[in-house]
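Lay summary

Proteins are chains of building blocks that fold into shapes. Our project writes down both the chain and a compact code for its shape. Here are two examples, one after the other.
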Amino acid sequence: MNLLSPTAWLEALAGVDPAPFFGLSLLPYLAFLWWSWRSGRMPRLAFWGFCLTLLFVAVTIAAAILAERGYGRQLADVDPLHGGAELFLTLSNVLVLLGFSRAPAKDEQ
């Protein structure tokens, strides 16, 4: 097997379990939230929108477990659960958008 070939490289990459990376990605996101809170430079509404993204992740995990155990399907295949979870992402995005759109421009301060 030639490790330099694209096919071999992609096959090796496909064998990597992504779960630890999802858990590790929480650390820089929490650091971002901490910095945002401490700096006081981010509009509060946008900050709470970014915090709501964590709730979206938690709700999505719970909905995925419920879809798997209750319906024997993936979350994407159970529309009410999938839509309900995605609602939290939409709400967080709207709060971020409103927070930054209502923030005064640097020239106005």
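And here is the second example, written the same way.
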Amino acid sequence: MKSLLKLVFFTPALLMFTGCGNYGNGELVGIKQKEWFEPSPYGMLLIDRGSFTMGPSDQDATWAFNSQSKTVSVESFWMDATEITNSEYHQFTNWVLDSLQRLMIYKYDIGKDPEAFARHNRNGDILYLNEEQNIPFLNWKERINLRNEEVRAGLDSIFYIDDFSTGSKMINASRLNYTYADFDYRQAALKANKFDPLRGRYPQVSIRKDTSFQAQDGSIINQSRNTALSSRNDFIQTKTINVYPDTMSWVRDFTYAYNEPYMKMYFSHAGYSQYPVVGVTWEQAAAFCHWRTMYKNAFQVSKGEPMVQNFRLPMESEWEYAARGGRRSSMYPWGGPYTRKANGCFLANFKPARGNYTSDGHMITAKVASYPPNDFGLYDMAGNVAEWTQTAYSPSTTSFVHDMNPDYQYNARIDDSPIMKRKVVRGGSWKDVGYFLQCGTQTYEYQDEARSFIGFRCVRTFIGPE
């Protein structure tokens, strides 16, 4: 009997140590994993890790008394060789339009079976119809067999409006809302919110929970509330962003100027397809980065490959490091202290001298890569359009950020004061004077403002082998 009891108690312990397989004859050898090399993202360049002196290389023309220099180090990252173009941003807006149309058809069809609708809604697969997202963006009417003319007419009335200037239909931009979920790592990393491994639970505290959704009339409802912290899921924030560029910014940004042709044509006309997208807020740029990550990872999963790191806006330190092109103290991305070549040709698209916009060959923006790249191979790191970064703006940032991957982020609430919604903008634009083209010049814009002279490019942290 005693031997039987010993066997009963010994067997679970033996199974616990033997596990499901034989790994290294009881030695610690790790698990077997497939060798992996990070795929090179299309249109991006690898910027190797390094250190540099971050800050102005010349005196501060604005006499702000807050421009400081600091030696910092940044990790390797991928960066778009050019700013995001109208053509690339159109892929995003087309996907959103296509997804919303399919979602409405899906709701119509599954509405005939309320139990199935509730089941899909619980599973969370109502937001995206991923089984079709890899189909090329053809006309939705050609791809989807709509047997109900009423549904087709209803979709037309929602997503298209009459353009009386041309007598044709145009996209109802107010309906292009993109909803996504994001994990608030900053809030999750706070010591007050740390998971207690001894008690096996989170502390009994409340955290901020931001949610948003689209109402029946198409308007976006944003809510911010405090909720009891009970699991990691409580750190998931939901955002709904209208993603269509603000084409009106061409008129709004300039008083007593005739910019209506740019308003009507810049984003929609094929002649501007390779020009940098503008009229995009910081919020819209962040939503684009999330979509680009989701779009790429859906492809990776379909091929049985590991997912890639998130695409995101560059940190201010990454942007300046990339702009300098490996040169430590150069004023401009091309290395010299002047904005012209020896033959008098300009090295960037900006506002030379006293407002002769055309002296550099362009009135407004230029096609991306119209000027020579810097030593890293990156185009338009000065001029053409200024660029959003993910970094929140503060006059004293240099004083308190770390010297390893320095960055300052703040997730502003809807009801926060405007001063809390400032994001760092770098690089200068087609309408700026030369000072703003310098690698170390820092300025800002509010995250919910769209400008005809601000665009963006994406980065992705490099996690490949050394």
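What can we say about the second shape? The two ends are 60 Å apart (CA to CA).
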